[in-house]
């Protein structure tokens, strides 16, 4: 399991707290359930697969090489660095080193 931090607006946080309470869960547990359900939804899995294959093809990589590259970049971005915000747009995952596409 991996812990992540998310920021919700006041309205969404209130709605989540109420929804979770009505379901007998904490807001954190219910938020995790919601995120997992969206990631696992069939249409989202198909979209993820298509995006992954397109990204791999654009870089001349196999699907597995693209997965390895993405996971490596995610791991780097999650390590805090002094004076620089973390972003997944670094190192040409989605754009150039400035985070600009293209």
How would you characterize the overall build of this protein?
The chain folds into 2 domains: 10-40; 43-92, no CATH class. Helix content is 59%, strand content 0%. The longest helix has 18 residues, at 42-59. The protein contains 4 helices and no strands. The model is unreliable at 88-102 (pLDDT under 50). With 102 residues, the chain is an all-alpha fold. The protein has helices spanning 10-22, 27-40, 42-59, 63-77.
Give unreliable regions as ranges. 88-102
Judged by helices, strands and strand pairing, the structural class is: mainly alpha
Could you estimate the helical fraction of the residues in percent?
55-70%
Number of domains: 2
Number of strands: 0
Beta-strand content bin? under 5%
Shape: extended
Instruction: Indicate the radius of gyration in whole angstroms.
Output: 17 Å
**Total number of helical segments?**
4
Q: What is the H/E order?
A: HHHH
Mean pLDDT: 81
Main pleated-sheet profile: none
First-last Cα distance: 34 Å
List the helices and strands and how they pair.
Layout: H1 10-22, H2 27-40, H3 42-59, H4 63-77
Helix pairs in contact: 1-2, 3-4
Structural key phrases:
102 residues, mainly alpha, 2 domains
Describe the structure concisely.
This protein is mostly helical and 102 residues long. 59% of the residues lie in helices and 0% in strands.
């Amino acid at each position: 399991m991996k812990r992540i931090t998310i920021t919700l607006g006041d309205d969404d946080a209130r709605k989540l707290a109420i929804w979770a309470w009505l379901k007998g869960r904490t807001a954190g547990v219910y938020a995790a359930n919601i995120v997992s359900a969206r990631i696992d939804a069939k249409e989202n899995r198909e979209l993820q697969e298509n995006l992954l294959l397109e990204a791999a093809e654009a870089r001349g990589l196999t699907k597995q090489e693209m997965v390895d590259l993405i996971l490596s970049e995610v791991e780097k971005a999650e390590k805090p660095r002094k004076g620089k915000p973390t972003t997944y747009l670094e190192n040409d995952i989605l754009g150039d080193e400035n985070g600009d596409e293209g």
